[in-house]
Design a protein that fits this description.
By secondary structure, this protein is an alpha+beta fold. Among the domains are: 117 residues, Flavocytochrome C3, Chain A, domain 1 (Alpha-Beta Complex); 100 residues, Fumarate reductase/succinate dehydrogenase flavoprotein-like, C-terminal domain (Methane Monooxygenase Hydroxylase, Chain G, domain 1, Up-down Bundle). 35% of the residues lie in helices and 22% in strands. The protein contains 13 helices and 23 strands. Strands 1, 2, 6, 7, 8, 9, 17 and 19 form an 8-stranded mixed sheet that branches. A 5-stranded mixed sheet has the order 18-16-10-22-23, covered by helices on one side. Strands 12-11-15-14-13 form a 5-stranded antiparallel sheet. Helix 3 crosses helix 10 and helix 5 packs across helix 13. The protein is globular.
């Protein structure tokens, strides 16, 4: 079908979480016209996920602490972070914090900041610890969006990027029951990670994992896709709520047979004490045995593992834990003394679209920021830096896109061809995809499991291709909705294939990537894996071997 531009702007931002909002506000502050589009509500994505109690935000304690934080990011990231991105990132945190404070964002500080619970996940020392309240952020950012005349378009989903001579000219979207084309001078991708590809996930449904494939098809590269955060979360009675890992050292964990989860393990309490120091799973530390036991128990009984707490913690919880359970009681109606069931969930992506320090991809006019990107984090990520990433690179992306758009006139008469097709059984295919990714690509990865998953991925893709019904026009809202769902699933399949490809190439265990058949880290593989699309096929190689 042939599309003519329905709307136009200097800068189009896709995604309305923290990174996207920062990009839109910054681009508008540079004097550009901006459309902020989101497949869900404005104020969505991982930033505003209701299964957690606020945005944790950390930065260097001072300018003198910047070098240590940068070195720690590299160490915790197991050498997978880009040094230039890390330097840009760390030096940009305090200026970004100052900007949002000037806009009216309230940062909560710890009263007992020296408690061990305020040391960020995986870190070795205290940092500048802050917390942003989601409701305060909504109010302040909504006011700024209105003041800067940013056009907010909720429930406007990106389907494809429109290119002309290799440069971004616009975006094809699904909105108001129609397939539309928006012309733009520059495009910012900020629509999050790929948690939506997994059965159990601590993400909202708009974090679908489609944007990585859309970027790949447009000529961008992906990096570090095999690294993602795998977090403990509640299976019941409050499904899809983040479990506070700081409580592990006080926890009593029992499997479905009412036996201690770590029964027979040497120094079980020491493992729980170490596990209380960080949220996501890592293969680097001995306490990975806790996560492996959790995952195996969850596979044996999908109901998960029962958690209760010592009387000591119930009566005298540390400040961070007390604050967390106060939020839990108010928002989720679960108290500290009630038993609950927990398991492991897909959470935030540490890898994604490859960018440079200006947030540019290798496609002219295409920029990216936030959880959709990779390179500023590595195999593991320090807690509180995801929020900082959105603030820093959201601002950088908005500024870079605004300056690119200032030199590239918007083609308001833009037209673009779009291959529209609708496939049946989308829901069943997505369920199958999520189950196989959870089973084969979450915690324990092996050559056999990854190969089988890639085969199943190909089978799903073949079914979509064979069953899709071409549509020359999308005259009905139901047709447009089906077209959008088909596009989304095709892209989710492609992103899943990219993750499995990277995980297959990395025949070692490093940070959040654990290979059951290669449980040790291999120094010979100490380089990021970069993925690109070549003649319709995903190709991956270690960066040390790449010509990019």
């Amino acid at each position: 079908m042939n599309l003519t531009a329905h709307a136009s702007c200097d800068v189009l931002v896709i995604g309305a979480g923290l990174a996207g909002i920062r990009a839109a506000l910054t681009a508008a502050s540079e004097g550009r016209t901006v459309i902020l589009a989101s497949s869900a509500n404005i104020f969505s994505g991982s930033s505003f996920f209701p299964g957690t109690w606020g945005f944790g935000l950390i930065g260097p304690e001072s300018e003198a602490d910047e070098a240590d934080l940068a070195a720690t990011i590299q160490r915790i990231g197991c050498g997978m972070a880009d040094p230039q991105l890390v330097q840009t990132f760390v030096s940009g945190i305090h200026p970004a914090i100052a900007e949002i404070k000037a806009q009216g964002i309230h940062l909560h500080r710890a009263a007992n900041a020296n408690e061990r619970e305020f040391i960020p996940c995986f870190d070795h020392k205290h940092r500048d610890w802050n917390r942003i309240e989601a409701e305060n952020a909504r109010i302040v950012f909504a006011q700024r969006i209105a003041e800067l005349n940013i056009e907010a378009r909720p429930f406007c989903e990106l389907l494809e990027i429109c290119l002309e001579h290799g440069q971004v000219r616009g975006a094809i979207v699904h909105e108001d029951g129609q397939i539309r084309l928006i012309a733009c001078g520059a495009l910012v991708l900020a629509s999050g990670g790929f948690g939506g590809l997994f059965k159990h996930r601590l993400t909202s449904d708009d974090v679908s994992g489609s944007v990585q494939s859309i970027a790949l098809k447009s000529g961008a590269e992906l990096v570090n896709l095999e690294f993602m955060q795998i977090m403990p979360g509640y299976l019941s009675p409050i499904y899809k709520t983040v479990f506070n890992e700081k409580t592990f050292r006080f926890a009593q964990l029992k499997d479905s047979f009412d036996l201690p989860l770590l029964l027979g393990m040497d120094q079980a309490q020491d493992l729980l004490d170490e596990r209380a120091g960080y949220g996501p799973f890592t293969a680097r530390l001995k306490s990975k045995l806790v996560d492996l036991a959790l995952f195996k128990a969850q596979q044996a009984d999908p109901g998960g593992v029962t958690v209760t707490y010592t009387r000591e913690m119930i009566e005298h919880p540390p400040e961070l834990i007390r604050t967390y359970f106060e939020w839990m009681a108010k928002a989720k109606h679960l108290t500290i003394s009630e038993p609950a069931k927990i398991g492991l969930f897909a959470h935030a992506a540490n890898g994604g679209i490859r960018i440079d320090p200006t947030a540019a991809t290798r496609v002219p006019g295409l920029f990216a920021c936030g959880e959709a990107t990779g390179g500023m984090h590595g195999a593991d990520r320090i807690g509180g830096l995801s929020t900082a990433n959105g603030l820093v690179f959201g601002g950088i992306a908005g500024r870079s896109a605004a300056r690119f758009a200032a030199e590239n006139t918007v083609k308001e008469s833009l037209t673009c061809e779009f291959s529209a097709a609708s496939a049946p059984d989308i829901a069943d295919c997505l369920t199958e995809l999520r189950e196989l990714m959870y089973r084969s690509a979450l915690v324990i990865r092996t050559a056999k499991g990854l190969t089988e998953a890639l085969t199943q991925i190909d089978q799903i893709a073949d079914r979509l291709q064979l069953d899709a019904r071409p549509l020359l026009q999308a005259d009905k809202p139901s047709d447009a909705k089906s077209i959008a769902a088909t596009c989304r699933l095709k892209d989710q399949v492609q992103t899943a294939r990219a993750i499995l490809t990277a995980a297959s190439l990395r025949r070692e265990s490093r940070g959040s990537h654990f290979r059951g058949d290669h449980p040790e880290q291999d120094p010979a593989q100490a380089a990021p894996i970069v993925l690109s699309l070549q003649e319709g096929s995903i190709q991956g190689c270690f960066l040390s071997q790449a010509n990019t």
